[in-house]
C-alpha cells in the first residue's frame, strides 16, 4: 500500500464496510510459505530464513489462525518480524496489529515505505528493529504516533492488541479533524468550502485604480499565505476572490482573524461564506475552461446571489453570465447592513456553527430571514457587531433599493464584461490579426464596431491580472475624444481581453505604408494629424500625468471625410505594462518608435513620447523612415547611442520643423520640450510649414522589428 485512496478517517459504519471489502480482497492475496526455520538473530541463518519466508510471499497460499480467521501478510514492508522469520506459522492477530501500525503511518504521512530500497535488505532491517520515520507526521496527526509505535513493537507481548488499538483510535477521532484525500488542482468528494471575496474591488478600480490595486495585492498575496500557514487549500481564484477548502472548523476563526488584520482601505473588507457538499472540477461549455462545480458550488452560488448578488463574485456561471450591471434580479440582503459591516464570516452549516460556538469568544447569530431556504449564521469573534445588531439599530432607516444600486454602479459595471461575452464576440468570425500582445478580432458589440484583443498569454498570475486591471482602469478614466482608451475589459481567467473601438479609416501607419488608397495626405493633412496628436498627448501628460508608452503610427487612428483626414486619435495608450507581461510571446516591438530611455526599460517617462513625436513628424513630412537598419538590434543601438538622421531641406523643407524635431530627439529627456510646448509651436506654424517635398506621395517605410 503506497498511497491512500479512501477517506483518511472512518466512522463505525465505514469501518464495517471496509472490513467486508478487506475480507473479499484477502481471497486473492498471497501469503508466505507455511514454514521457515526459526532463528533469533540476524546471522547468516537469518538471511536464509528471511529469504525463504519472503520468497513464499509470492506463492498462492493463505495462512489461517487457530480460530479460523484468515491472516493477510501482504508484502514484505507490512510483514511483522516474526512472519518474516517464520512464515505463515507466525501469522496471528499480533502480526496483523503490526501491519496496522505500518498502515497508520502511511495514512498519517502520505509517505512511501522505504522508497527505492532493496526489499530483502529492508526485511533484514525490520527484523533488527527498523521502522518508518515518524518525523514527517503532520502536527494534527501526532496523537497517532504513540499508537503506531506500540503497534509495531518487535516483541509480540509488548504490542497493542487490535482491540486496544481500536479503543485508542476511537479516542482520537473527531469530526473536526477529518481530512479528505484530494488535491487543490483536482478537488473531489465532500468538502467544506469557503468563498472569499474582496467585495466591490472591481467596481472600485474605476474610482481609484492605484489604491484598489494595492488592496488587491494585499488580498492575493497575504490571504493565500495565511491559508497555507494554517493548512487550508486554495482551490480556485480570480481577481478579487478565492475559493478555499478547510478541514477543521477552527481554521475558520483563524481565517476571520487574519482577514480582519489585513491592511485594507476602510471601505473594503473580506467577505466569507461557508457551505459543505460535494465538489468536482467541470469543463465550461463555452470557452473550454475548467472550473469548480458540483453541489457545493451550486449551493454557494445560490446563497451568495441571495445575500450579496453575483456581480464580480467569481460564482457567475460562465454560460449564463450577463453584464455586471444587470446581475441584480432582486435586492441583495446585504444592502441592509453592509454600510455598517463591510465584510464578515457567514456560515450555512449548523454543525459547523455548533462547533464554532464551543470556542471562546465566538458568537453566531442567525440572519432574521432564510437565505435560499437555508438558515445562514453571521459568526463573530469578541465584541464585534453582528448583522442582527446592525439591523436593530437601522430598523427605522431605509436601505437603498436594487434599482438605486444598479444606477450607482452601472457606469462602473459596464466596463467589465464576462468571459462568455468575449467568447461570443470572437465567435462572430470577423477579421482577425495578431498584434504585439494580443490576437485582434473585429466584432460588433453594443451597436458599434470594435476590436476585441484577447491576450496572447492567458496563464496569468494574480500580479499580472491586477496590473492589467490597474492599467485598463487608468486608461479608461483618462479617455477623451482624441485620446481614446479601452471601452471595456474582461478580467476572467481564460479570456483576458480588452475591447477598443474599430476605426474604419485605419491608422497613420496604413497611410505611411501606402496600404490605404485614395488618401489626400498633403500639408493640411499632416498639420491636422500633428496638432491633434500633440494635443491628445499633452492632455495625457498634463492633467493625468501619464505617458502613452507605446506611441507609433499604428497607434494613431484616423477619421476620414471622404479622402481627407479630419481627426487623429491616440489609441492603445497606457498598455505597455500589459505588453511587457506577454514575455517571449510578444513580437519584437517597433524599435524605431522608442526613445533612448524606453530602450533602457523606462516606458513611463512622458518625455519619451516627445522623442517619438519627433520621429512621427519626420516620417510624415520626409516620407521615409527616421531610423532604419538591418535588424531591430541595430536600430536600437543607433537610437540609444545618439545617432540621428541628417535633416536636409530636401527632406524637411521647414526650418522651424527641423528645429522642433531636433529638440524632440535630444538624448537628455529634460532637454526636450514638453508636449504642451510642442502643441504651442505647432499651433503657431502656418500650414505651409508642413509641406513635403514629395507632396502627396507615400512609399513603404523600411522599418525593422515589426509593427505592433
Automatic annotation (TrEMBL):
Residues 1-47 are annotated as: Disordered. This is TKL protein kinase. Keywords: Kinase, Transferase. It comes from the Eukaryota. Pfam families: PK_Tyr_Ser-Thr (PF07714), Pkinase (PF00069). Residues 16-28 have a biased composition (Basic residues). Residues 1-169, 426-691 form the Protein kinase domain. GO terms for molecular function: ATP binding; protein serine/threonine kinase activity. Coiled coil: none annotated. InterPro entries: Kinase-like_dom_sf (IPR011009), Prot_kinase_dom (IPR000719), Ser-Thr/Tyr_kinase_cat_dom (IPR001245), Ser/Thr_Kinases-Pseudokinases (IPR051681).
